[in-house]
Amino acid sequence: MSWKPEIDELRRREELARRMGGPEKVERQHDHGKLTVRERIDALLDPGSFHEIGAIAGKFRPDGTFQPANFVFGRGRLDDRPVVVGGDDFTVRGGASDASIREKQIMAEQLAHELRVPLVRLVDGTGGGGSIRSLEEIGRTYVPANPGWEWVVANLGTVPVVALALGSVAGLGAARVAAAHYSMMVRGTSQVFAAGPPLVARLGQEVTKDELGGSDVHGRNGVVFDVVDSEAEAFARTRRFLSYLPQSVHQLPPHVETSDPPDRREDWLIEAIPRDRRRAYRIRPIIEAVVDQGSFLELGRGFGRSAVTGLARLGGWPVAVLAGDPMVYGGGMTADSSRKTEWFVDLAETFHLPVVHLVDQPGFVIGVEAERAGTMRFGVRALNAVYQAKVPWASVVLRRVFGVAGAAHTNAARAQYRYAWPSADWGSLPIEGGIEAAYRADLDAAEDREALLAEITAKMNALRSPFRTAEAFGIEEIIDPRDTRPLLCEFAELAAPLRAAGPTSWHFRG
């Protein structure tokens, strides 16, 4: 007597689960330009590598039909590296809590943590949060809690977590998107909000889903760090992001072979910075010129735009690249770029990524709006993150370093691995404008104010030469800009054995 009847029943139930919400709901999902959760998992993972867990979890309805739980998860491989992936099934009750089995979500988080492998969340719905309809079933209200959230928090300090908002995401689903190292939305099909338009309408605010929580909103405010044009692009960026990171904090970021010579020198870099200090320049071509060709993956381009953050490789070694963008607020530190810097340094520290900082920092953005945004508070948090970081750190001063914000270019208490281009310019504040504040009384008393101003300016300009600073060893080395890549590749080689696997004393805070 065999157990074949039970195996046949198991296969029947697995087949019912694979039907998800049924043909009509699947077709509706496709009509909205979205894949089903199972199609998403297949598109993300290496072919044939997905091992589902809890496939037959769900419930049989009174009419004998089967409603699977609206969360699908399991193990798989991504570029031949093990991962845990879990996704909401919007075809079953729109991802609502009354069709969820929360233990599946909790186990996905716990499994990633205990296996020490990356976690990818495919979020499309409320993500298991409460709903009014569920109260009828349980017969009471309840005090809110987030069972299993301790694993969400623990994962931020243990394994890489990527969250993709792939539809209308509300409540706990929105929290699951935000509680990740890297999060994305799909333009035109994703929305993220604490509560949707029907509830917001009760406040007298009539808005569409996109007006309330579309990608134009959250791609700029930092709730998510990137916006892509398709689910396929989201999956491709997920794979690329994870390729720079270790499986967990207990490992080190992997080295890859590169055909780009470490001693490559780009001749145009010698004229990359304009002599006219009032002229801006493009920072991204400079980044591309010094890192391994094609390796720069920018993160968070739409948020805190005066800071540029991304992952790259130098001689095949993964590094975190931070830079100022003089095309936006002159590269000045805003509240948002401070938050972005803190996030990025936390990411580098958590996953043992050496930091390369290409510095052009004129200082904190000033004015009424900057003060109302709390720029100093967030700027201090960014400065503190830099000073807390223990990962190897190299700074290259391209142009300006001024004031407290400029001091955030490195931890001054550490041995400095730092270079300056001959275009470097630094101080407590720029000479332009600062002279009139410092010499106001003299200028006001002068018979020829403009002549005295020109005289003082000429004297100060003679003092601002970076060579004067180098004479006093206030800057360690002034270099030919064309030597930047070879020197940074040397830094990456020297930094590689200094990286230490294991949890850090502080880690990603979200």
UniProtKB/TrEMBL annotation:
GO molecular function terms attached to this record: propionyl-CoA carboxylase activity; transferase activity
Keyword flag Repressor: no
Entry keyword Transferase: yes
One Pfam family in the UniProt entry: Carboxyl_trans
Domain CoA carboxyltransferase N-terminal per the UniProt entry, residue ranges: 1-257
Domain CoA carboxyltransferase C-terminal, chain residue ranges per copy: 261-500
Xref: InterPro entries: AccD/PCCB, AcCoA_carboxyl_beta, ClpP/crotonase-like_dom_sf, COA_CT_C, COA_CT_N
Keyword terms, alphabetized: Transferase
Taxonomy, superkingdom: Bacteria
Name used for this protein in its record: Acetyl-CoA carboxylase carboxyltransferase component
